[in-house]
Amino acid sequence: MLRGLYGAASGMITQQRQQEALSNNIANANTPGYKSDQTAIRAFPELLVQQSGGQNTIPTTQGGFNIPGSRQLGGMNTGVYVQETIPRFSQGDIAESGMPTDVAIQQNEVPDENGAIFFAVQNEDGDVRYTRNGNFTIDADGYLVNGQGYYVLDEDGENIQTDGNVDTITPEGVIPTADGEVTLGMQYVADVNTLTKEGNDLFEGDAEAVPAEAAYTLQQGALEQSNVNTEQAMTDMMNAYRLFESNQRVLRVYDESLGKAVTEVGRLT
User: Fold this and answer.
1) Cα separations (Å) of 11 from 43, 97, 203?
2) For residue 150, which of 193, 198, 211 has the smallest C-alpha distance?
3) Would you tell me how many other CB atoms lie within 10 Å of the CB of residue 217?
């Protein structure tokens, strides 16, 4: 009976984690460049159940003798858990914003199945992070920064000085400046599953220069929208809620049965 309690409780915890991930997706449905999270749910290792204590008769010339026997009953799972939460890196829709500092990545083709192209930014600790959110602005010193005030990097890993104005960003990421031109430092990650999601649309991991065989374009005055499917997310939330309620009812039944075992069966003995 206690095993049933643990199984129902693990199901409730799993659906709660699922609800949290879906709620976060819906909350960021309008966040540019946001990549939705999906949960990987797994069962605990399966147990092999067998019945023991029976008797098997071994025939002999004197009539046979009995030895302790057992019989396999089958497998049993003791519960489920959320193994990990994985971002989904499918391309989001491109929407016009009208802001000259906004840039959207239209990723057309990459050499690796799980590869993706990112903007590179530098956080307050000087570490490089990667993002698909091209909602950039110009700070008081004339540098191109993202929404958190992190410097956007060029192809040499340097901060981009715009002299307070950005008129043109070419599809290749070239920005004309008073001193010539700079190019946005686009980075490529061959396997996005190796990235760690930090929040604020930032990812940590290892990246490299975009390979020549990759095909992409940058669109000025536009933003890549989140890839959250709100209708599907709402449907999944309802399913998770129903599963949570089902496990809750099972837990209540076990609790009532335990209560009777303590108050009624115990009184009879």
Assistant:
1) 10, 43, 30
2) 198
3) 14
With 80 as the cut, is the pLDDT of residue 154 above it?
A: yes
What b/e readout covers 14-33, taking b as 16+ CB neighbours within 10 angstroms? bbebbbebbebbeebeebbb
Distance CA 134, CA 185 (A): 12
Q: Per-residue pLDDT tens for 217-244?
A: 999 999 999 999 999 999 999 999 998 8
**253 Cα distance to chain centroid:** 34
Instruction: Determine if residue 165 is left, alpha or beta; phi over 0 gives left, psi from -120 to 50 gives alpha, anything else beta.
Output: beta
Q: Tens of pLDDT along 163-216?
A: 888 999 999 999 998 778 999 999 999 999 999 998 889 999 999 999 999 999
Instruction: Fill in the amino acid letter for 198.
Output: E
Domain boundaries, given as residue ranges, for the chain: 2-52+75-85+229-268, 94-224
d(CA 136, CA 102): 5
The dihedral through the CA atoms of 134, 138, 143, 146 has a sign that is negative
**Cβ atoms 150, 124 nearer than 8 A:** yes
